[in-house]
Structures are given as C-alpha cells and as structure tokens.
Amino acid sequence: MTITPIIPQSQGPVIHRAGWLAMDADTLIENGCVQVQKGRIIHAGVFRPGLEGIIHDHGPGVLMPPLVNAHTHLELSALKGRLTLDKGFEVWVKDLLSLREKTGRDGLLEGFNQGIRELTDSGTLVVGDISAMGIGDTILGESVLSGIVFREYLGNIIPEIPMDEINGGFVVALAGHAPHTSSPELLKSLKNRCRKRGLPFSIHLGESREEMEFITTGKGSWADFLTYRGIDFSSWGIPCQSPVKHLAQLGLLDEKTLCVHVIHADDDDIHLLSQTKSPVCLCPRSNHLLHNTLASVEKMQANGLLLCLGTDSLASTPSLSIRDEMKFIAHHVSGIEPKDIFRMATENGARALGLGETFGRLEPGMSGALIHVRIQANHKQDILESIYHD
After folding, report:
1. Coil, strand or helix: which one is 334?
2. Are 52 and 122 within one domain?
3. In angstroms, rounded to a whole number, what is the distance separating the alpha carbons of residues 40 and 33?
4. Whether pLDDT at 133 is above 90
5. Are 124 and 320 within 8 A, CB to CB?
6. In terms of C-beta density within 10 A (0-12 exposed, 13-18 middle, 19 or more buried), how is residue 168 classed?
7. Is 376 helix (H, G, I), strand (E, B) or coil?
8. Torsion sign, CA atoms 384, 361, 257, 166
9. Contact partners, residue 99, CB within 8 Å, separation at least 6
10. What is the rounded CA–CA span in Å between residue 52 and residue 47?
C-alpha cells in the first residue's frame, strides 16, 4: 500500500482531488477534494469544476487527515531491533540505558533522522515526542512534522526547565516519566507549569507489573533498582492503591494529562480516568511485545475515555507506523469499529495533544497537511477498514 504525505508547499490555492475524501470518521465523500491556501484548508467536499487553484489529481484512494503518533521516543530510534523484549521490563530498562550510552550522540542522532523518515513514509505527520536528552530539537524543527515535544524528567530534583520554543511546527511541553520513577513534588511542579501555559502534560502510567508492585507495596525489584540508581523514594507517599489513584491523589489527572499505556488499571481506575476526562494513549504493539498484555480497550471506550494511539519507541516495537497500530487493534481487540480506530489514529490523537483545532479533521481552517492512501475500495463502508488492511 502506498501512502503519500501532502505538505503545503505554496501560498496556493491548490486543490487535491481523489476517489474518496475522509474528512473525519463520519464524513466520507466520493470524488472528494481539499482546497488549500496559505497552508490552511479553505474548502473540503465534492470536487467540482471551477474551483480556483492548481489541481493535483491523486487518482484512486482516499485523502484523509495525517496520522497522529501521540507517544514516541525518537531519541531511541537507533536501538531498533537491538534489545531483548522477553526477559521482563526491568531487564529491558537496564539494557536500554546501557545501550543508549554506548550508542553515543552521533548514533542516536542518525537514528533520530531515520525515525522521522519512517514516520513520514507511513503517513504520520503529527507526533508527541518524548525528549529525555534534548538532542533532536533542531532536527524536528527542520522536519515536515508538527506536534508536541515533551521534555521529560524523573527523580527527586526539580530542575530549572527551559520552555524555549522550537522552530517549525512544534510546541514545547513537559512530561513526568512515571509515578514509579518520579517524586510527587517533581510531578506536581511539571504539571503546574503546563497548567499555567495551557499545555498538555504526558506521563507513563500503569505500564508494568514491576510498577504495580512498587506502587502498591513500596517494595520489590523496582524498589531495589531505584535504590541502586540512588533515587530516594521514602517521601513519595507509597504504597498506594494504584498508579492511577496515586496521580488522582496528587491532583494531576485532567483533560490535559495524557496517560500513556495504562495496561494495569481496574474498573475503578478506568472510571476515575473517565471522571477526570484524562486521555489515554494506547501503545498496543509495544505492550504486547514487552509486557505480553494489552490495556482494557473495550472497557475504556465504554466509559467514554478519549483513546489515541502511539507506537512507543523502536526499542520496544518494530516500526513507528500508526497504521500498523491500527491494524493490530483491529485484529486483537473485539468490539472496536473501523470508525473508532480511525478516530484513535487521527482526531483523538490531535485532541489528546491539545492540537484538535489544527489537526485530526479535514475542514476549513484546519492545517492543509494531509495524506493520500492508495486503496481499492468501491463502497463507502469499506473505506476506513481498507486504510489499515493490506
């Protein structure tokens, strides 16, 4: 299947036409077009002669919003295929830290560039990228991608945090690594800085059995690992009932806190996430490969959670393709309709990143960045499913 990214290159107007237009999950138009001027959509609908602008006819297939990878770690792209995933989370973390150091800055930057190419080639033009080292800002700013760079912190120390902007289509926000690696004071400080600026905040949550054991007992192999790393967790308010409840007690859950993974959450946790309107980013292939389990997607959807998709890093998944995540969800989660999967990969991801007024749908006023997916589908009911099926 061929996916063609379409990036506004001129002041326009320019008209993109295709056999089908998916403006959003509910609006599919045969013989559709998108008219773009000065980087923004000024018309989307049925193609008709007389529209002003240079016409680019993409032929069969569907024009649609760009895919959104709401959680990835481009800094780790150079580690692709170099880590063992079946020896447990703690072993994987230790190996990752060691291999990242051995790879060095130049190797990591080479992987970073390759990761960007992989994203664009697979139709992802919007990302939520976790930046733990801050090495890729210039590269992202010069790329065709847009989105959020989440500068990530962990431990006990509350640092001086630069909030300088990145050139290009990126906004800088903050991330706390996770409740099992970060003090409550640090997490609250990071979240409050985001709140003051109206920015999203990202955090890994309920990701592993080791995290669950540590949060609920204050003991176990992860407690030993933190002690070995010199991180004092004696004042973290642990043990607690669950990672989700821990964040709720700290006042960190709301519609701008993007909770990533959440594969360990009971019914009460899911209800709490729903009450606080906290979006959840699913990374299904990474969770399956690294933890041999998946989040309770059907329960989350039934409780009205805003669900979006991420790949996590190439250290734990074979590709950065959101289309691959869509396909995996379709094959492994029952009761999820093609419309739901399409929303997760487009509109929901944009909303979870705080970019819902710019990306996620094709309508006047939105970004003129879009993609063309060459599919063979003759009936409207087959369009969305054909996007992620070979």
Report:
1. coil
2. no
3. 14
4. yes
5. yes
6. middle
7. coil
8. positive
9. 79, 82, 83
10. 11
Contacts of 380 (CB under 8 A, 6+ apart): 20, 28, 30
For residue 382, the enclosing domain spans: 3-65+362-388
- Three-state secondary-structure class, residue 274: helix
- By percentage, how much of the chain surpasses pLDDT 90? 88
Specify whether 96 is located in the same domain as 178: yes
Helix (H, G, I), strand (E, B) or coil at 223: helix
Q: What is the pLDDT of residues 206-243, one digit of tens each?
A: 999 999 999 999 999 999 989 988 889 999 999 999 99
Q: Is residue 346 part of a domain?
A: yes
Q: What is the mean pLDDT of residues 260-269?
A: 98
When pLDDT is cut at 50, 70 and 90, the band that residue 169 belongs to is confident
Q: What pLDDT shows up at residue 166?
A: 75
Q: Tell me 125's DSSP state.
A: E
In a 3-state reduction of DSSP, which class is residue 373? strand
How long a stretch of residues is the chain? 390
Q: Are 1 and 386 in contact (CB under 8 A)?
A: no
The answer to whether the CB of 307 falls within 8 A of the CB of 285 is no
Q: Tokens for 337, please give them.
A: 């309709």
Query: In what helix (H) or strand (E) does residue 280 lie, and over which residues does it extend?
Result: strand 280-282
Triad 368, 130, 314: Cα angle to 5°? 95
Task: Please report, as a single letter, which amino acid is at residue 134.
Answer: G
Domain count, the chain: 2
In angstroms, how far is CA 187 from the centroid of its own chain? Answer: 20
CA atoms within 13 A on the CB side of 81: 3
